Amino acid sequence: MQTKRMTFSSRWLPYALLAPQVLITVVFFIWPASQALWQSMLRQDAFGLRTTFVWFRNFERLFDNPLYLASMKTTAIFAISTTLLAMSLSLLFAVMVNRMLRSREWYTTFLVWPYAVAPAIAGVLWWFMFNTSVGIVPYMLEGFGYDWNHRLDGNDAMILVVLAAAWKQISYNFLFFLAGLQSIPQSLLEAAAIDGAGRTKRFWTIVFPLLSPTTFFLMVVNVVYAMFDTFGVIHATTEGGPAQATNILVYNVFRDGFVNGNLGASAAQSVVLMGIVVVLTVVQFRFIERRVNY
C-alpha cells in the first residue's frame, strides 16, 4: 500500500501558513498570560505610582483568605450546575427537533437565536423575569406558596445565575448535538428497531454512545464557558451577591482589580483561574476521553 506524501514548493510556505495562528496565540494568549503572571508577583497601587516585588505573597494571601476559598466552592457549584443543565436541555431539544421532518428548520432557527444575545443582555432579561417587584416568575411562585427573593436568599440567587448562564449556552450545544444526531446512520437504528429495541433503549445503547465525541467536546467547552464567559451574566443579575453567594472566581477578579484597586491580588487570581481551567482540561482529556468512542 502506497502512501501519499504532501510536499511544498517552498520550504517557507508551511511556516507562512502557521504564522497567523502563532501570531494570534502569542498576542492574545501568551503575552497577556505572561503579563498577568508578572503582575501577580507585584504589589502596586491603583495609579501605578509605587510598585514592590513581593514574589508569591499575593498567592499566599489568597489561599489564606476564607472568602476566596468560598468563592472557589461557589465557582465549582456554578460551573457543574450550568454545564449539566445546559447540556441536558440542549440534548433534549436536539432529540426532539431531530424527529421532526417538516418544521425542523423553523425550530432550529428559533433555538439558535438566543446565542446571539450578549451575556449582559441575557442577564438583564432574566433579572427582569425574576425581579421581586415587577417580575412574572416571583408572582407565579407566590401562588405556589414560595417567596422568591434573590436579593436576600443565596440559593435563589444561585438558581437565577445558573438559569441565565445555561439559557445562553443551550443554543451552542444544541447545534452540535443536532449535527451529531443527523450523522448517525439510520440503518443502525432501524436494525435495532427490528430486533425489538424501544426508543429509550435505542437512545442509550446506540445514539448516546455515538454522541460521546460531541458530548466530550461540549463538556470541555461548557466548563470553560462557565468559569470564564459568565462575568456579564453575574454582573447584570446579582453582582456576586447576596453575601457573595454568587461571587465566582472570574467576578472576584473584576471586583478586586477594578473595584477595590488591588491589582496584584487580581492578577494572582487570574493566574489561579487560568491554572484551574488548564488542569480541568488536562484531566478531562486524560481520563474522561478514554470512554469516548470515536
From TrEMBL:
GO biological process: transmembrane transport
Alphabetic keyword roster: Cell inner membrane, Cell membrane, Membrane, Transmembrane, Transmembrane helix, Transport
SUPFAM superfamilies assigned: MetI-like (SSF161098)
Membrane protein topology class: Multi-pass membrane protein
Listed InterPro entries: MetI-like, MetI-like_sf, UgpAE/MalFG_permease
Main location: membrane
Gene Ontology cellular-component annotations: plasma membrane
Residues in ABC transmembrane type-1 domain copies: 72-284
Subcellular location: Cell inner membrane; Cell membrane
Superkingdom as given in the UniProt entry: Bacteria
Stretches that traverse the bilayer: 12-31, 76-98, 110-130, 157-181, 202-228, 267-288
Pfam family, one: BPD_transp_1
Its job: Part of the ABC transporter complex UgpBAEC involved in sn-glycerol-3-phosphate (G3P) import. Probably responsible for the translocation of the substrate across the membrane.
PANTHER family reported in the protein's UniProt record: BLL4140 PROTEIN, SN-GLYCEROL-3-PHOSPHATE TRANSPORT SYSTEM PERMEASE PROTEIN UGPA
Similarity comment: Belongs to the binding-protein-dependent transport system permease family.
NCBIfam families: PRK10561.1
Complex formation: The complex is composed of two ATP-binding proteins (UgpC), two transmembrane proteins (UgpA and UgpE) and a solute-binding protein (UgpB).
Protein name: sn-glycerol-3-phosphate transport system permease protein UgpA
Organism, as annotated: Pararhodobacter aggregans
